[in-house]
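Exercise 3.2. Students should predict the tertiary structure of the chain below and write it as structure tokens, then compare their answer with the key that follows.

Predict this chain's 3D structure.
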Amino acid sequence: LRITVWSLCTKSVSYIKYPKACQQGVAFTKDGRYMAVAERRDCKDFISIFVCRNWQLLRHFDTETQDLFGIEWAPNGCVLAAWDTCLEYKVLLYSLDGRLLSSYRAYEWPLGIKSIAWSPSSQFLAIGSFDEKVRILNHVTWKKITELEHPAVITNKKTIVYKEVEKSPTLGTERLSFPPTRALASSLFSTQSKYDICQVPVSLHYIKPVADKANPKVGVGMLAFSADNCFLATKN
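Answer key:
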């Protein structure tokens, strides 16, 4: 198993050995200068950082993970986040030279991390977990600054809840014809939608996942920061 790097400019080819077959095992910095690769050798996890200009190895270090699941650069390219498999809740933060800056673990035994997202300013790291919560770390101390939940009932009066309402067009019997004209057929199947503001408390409709099957659809699987770092969208 190896990674092949093809240069579209010089048509040269470079090879990187021992890549780990994980979901997010390769990550580039936003400026394209460096590439991090998750590796697996002798039953241990490693990370190699390469300079993209000439594909020279910059740093190679082992990680304190049982089964490294993914890596993600901060947008400023200064910090690399690495996290363990869902069976082990652990986030490790490394500098560009391979130093371990900090590690974070919210709990120990239940299923752990499902998704991770950096804020555009690199000041915050959001961690979505299988316990249906989002934890946000700050870039100064790498400690948790807040914890966000996904309640089934919204009771906070400061929360605005939008509900999509669909409305089908009403047609008089005098307009009906067979076969219908193209314009009439288009109007029959067209719907209009709008968003109404609901009064709290609001009970959210959801489908309870089947927990006794493999890969249950639980946990926060999507995180997205707004461009100004002020808002975070999550999907549980």
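Discussion points: Residues 154-198 form one domain. The longest strand covers residues 34-41.
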